[in-house]
Specification:
Length: about 160
C-alpha cells in the first residue's frame, strides 16, 4: 500500500511540475507576458514616439544585452561610474500586457531603459510594481550593461517612430 501511495504521489507531483512549464504561455504558444507597448522619451522628458507594432516589440524583447560576466557587481560599478560623464539621449519605458485575472486592462510598466549618447552602455531599471508580493529596494532593480552596435542602432531607431 505504501508503494502505491508513493507512486501516486510521484505521478501527481510530476503532473503539477509539468503543467507549470507552460505557465507563461497562452494556448497559441505566444508569450503571455510579452511587451504591449514601448514609449520613447527625449532627455528632457518629451514623448517622441510610442511603439505598438508587434514585430518591433518582439524584436525589442529579444534584444540580448546580458553580456555581464560572473563578477556582476564590479562590472556594473564600473559601467555606472562611466555613465556619470555621459549625456542621456533617450529614456525608454516598456509596458507588458496585464496577465492577472482581475485587471483594469491597462498595460503594466515593466522597465525603464536609459540610453546614453556616444556609448553602448544601457541602464535598466525594473519597475518595482512588477515584483509581486514584496518590496525590493531600487538598488537591486537597477542594472548597467552594454549592447552591441547593431542593438544600439535598433534602440535608436525607436525614437524615429511617430506618436
Amino acid at each position: 500500500m505504501k508503494k502505491v501511495l508513493n507512486c501516486l504521489l510521484a505521478v501527481i507531483l510530476s503532473a503539477i511540475s509539468l503543467a507549470g512549464c507552460g505557465a507563461g504561455r497562452n494556448a497559441g504558444g505566444g508569450d503571455v507576458q510579452r511587451l504591449s507597448q514601448v514609449e520613447v522619451y527625449s532627455a528632457d522628458g518629451n514623448l517622441l514616439g510610442i511603439v505598438t507594432d508587434e514585430d518591433t516589440l518582439l524584436w525589442f524583447s529579444g534584444l540580448d544585452y546580458t553580456d555581464i560576466s560572473s563578477d556582476t557587481d564590479a562590472e556594473m560599478d564600473i559601467l555606472e561610474r562611466n555613465t556619470g560623464n555621459l549625456k542621456v539621449l533617450y529614456t525608454i519605458i516598456t509596458y507588458k500586457a496585464p496577465v492577472a485575472a482581475y485587471n483594469d486592462g491597462n498595460p503594466e510598466k515593466l522597465m525603464e531603459l536609459t540610453v546614453y549618447e556616444d556609448s553602448n552602455i544601457i541602464k535598466e531599471q525594473i519597475a518595482p510594481e512588477t515584483i509581486k508580493g514584496g518590496y525590493v529596494a531600487e538598488e537591486f532593480l537597477t542594472f548597467y550593461t552594454t549592447v552591441s552596435d547593431e542593438d544600439k542602432e535598433f534602440i535608436l531607431s525607436l525614437a524615429e517612430i511617430e506618436k
